From TrEMBL:
Membrane-crossing segments per the record: 20-39, 46-70, 90-109, 116-135, 155-177, 189-214
Highest taxon, organism lineage: Eukaryota
Keywords: Membrane, Metal-binding, Transmembrane, Transmembrane helix, Zinc, Zinc-finger
Cell division found in the keyword field: no
PANTHER family: PROTEIN CBG20824 (PTHR47156), RING-TYPE DOMAIN-CONTAINING PROTEIN (PTHR47156:SF7)
Bias (Pro residues): 243-252
GO MF entries: zinc ion binding
UniProt keyword Zinc, yes or no: yes
Annotated RING-type domain residues: 257-305
Cross-referenced SUPFAM superfamilies: RING/U-box
The protein's name in its UniProt record: RING-type domain-containing protein
Segments of this protein annotated with the region Disordered: 232-252
Gene3D superfamilies according to UniProt: Zinc/RING finger domain, C3HC4 (zinc finger) (3.30.40.10)
Length: 338
């Protein structure tokens, strides 16, 4: 895993799964195109191709509209960015997980034909890939990422996920044995084996968002640490009592330039310079800008509009030593000055 402060760019099992699903969809499209070119010209072939393309466009459009609706709700409720991303991921992984659960349970109620299995599998591939792209892919490792876990927590999390899926698989096989219909029994076992890997990955990602949360990524691609959304941390926070802050010493306000509002310094671009003809003071940086604005050696006071001839840069104007001495006294005894 990445160390703190390093750029974040790593893949998760979900990304490989979705990449495989997208590759399957593209392969199906390419195969369909070659089939239309070289197969016998029949209306049914073109009808199947049109239905397949229409299904892709329809499902993708529905998922995209759902994403726009969710973003609209987040905007209206003025949800913070981190909470918004967390909600998006919960919606994505929760929806995909429920879809897989339906596909795993469906063979318990009826014997599915090859055509039904093919159609439901295609709908799942298109839907899950679209959901992942619109809700997760556009922000994961770009605007936010997972909170890093220590090795011990990782092992516990992976072992728990594997055990849950093994128990579900054993229960499935045990229930399928009770069915007298061999075809239905084989479909139940095959369905559970087929959807075990996608379900395990989706379940793990959903649990990871719920238990550990996310963290933002700054503009430089580095982790921006946030409070970990875990139950243990919340318990520790609720038990701990904040220590009273010691009373702060009064700090006298520093004199600032009346043009740029930057505090004056003894040296540098914010040194107070006196405009000779009127006695007003501005910082050296603002005096330079006033000289450059006129493109000549005449500095027009921004307060009283009295001109002053300057032979050279703004650094040749006299320092306001009285103001600098006052700043030194304020630093030494701020209570007396205030």
């Amino acid at each position: 895993m990445k160390e703190e402060g390093e750029n974040i760019n790593f893949s998760t099992p979900t990304e490989f799964l979705v990449l495989f699903q997208a590759w399957t969809i593209v392969s199906g499209i390419v195969f369909g195109i070659f089939y239309l070119i070289f197969a016998e010209l029949k209306a049914t072939n073109f009808l199947i191709a049109v239905c397949f393309i229409a299904a892709i466009l329809l499902i993708t459009s529905i998922v995209w509209l759902c994403k726009l609706f969710v973003d609209f709700i987040h905007k209206k409720l003025k949800v913070e960015a981190l909470t918004k991303y967390r909600n998006d991921y919960l919606i994505a992984f929760g929806t995909i997980g429920m879809f897989i659960v339906v596909l795993r349970v469906l063979p318990y109620f009826s014997t599915l034909s090859k055509e039904t299995l093919t159609v439901t599998s295609l709908v799942y591939l298109i839907t899950s890939t679209s959901i992942y792209y619109f809700f997760v892919f556009q922000t994961l490792d770009k605007k936010c990422t997972w909170i890093q876990l220590d090795e011990k927590t990782w092992i516990k999390f992976i072992v728990t996920t594997v055990l849950i899926n093994v128990v579900l698989l054993i229960v499935c096989i045990r229930i399928s044995v009770e069915y007298d219909d061999i075809i239905m029994r084989n479909q139940i076992i095959l369905g559970f084996w087929l959807w075990t890997f996608p379900f395990a990955i989706t379940f793990a990602e959903l649990a990871r968002v719920l238990l550990f949360g996310l963290q933002l990524i700054d503009s430089n691609g580095n982790r921006n640490e946030v409070t970990k959304k875990s139950v243990e941390l919340k318990k520790v926070k609720s038990k701990s009592t904040p220590k009273p802050e010691p009373p702060s010493k009064p700090v006298a306000p520093k004199p600032t330039c009346n043009i740029c509002s930057a505090p004056y310094t003894e040296n540098g671009v914010h040194t107070p310079r006196i405009i000779r003809e009127c006695g007003h003071s501005v910082c050296e940086q603002c005096a330079d800008k006033l000289l450059n604005a006129k493109c000549q050696n005449i500095l027009l006071c921004p307060f009283c509009q009295k001109p002053t001839i300057v032979n050279g840069p703004a650094g040749t104007l006299p320092k306001n030593f009285a103001l600098l001495e006052q700043m030194t006294e304020m630093q030494q005894d701020p209570i007396r000055i205030v």
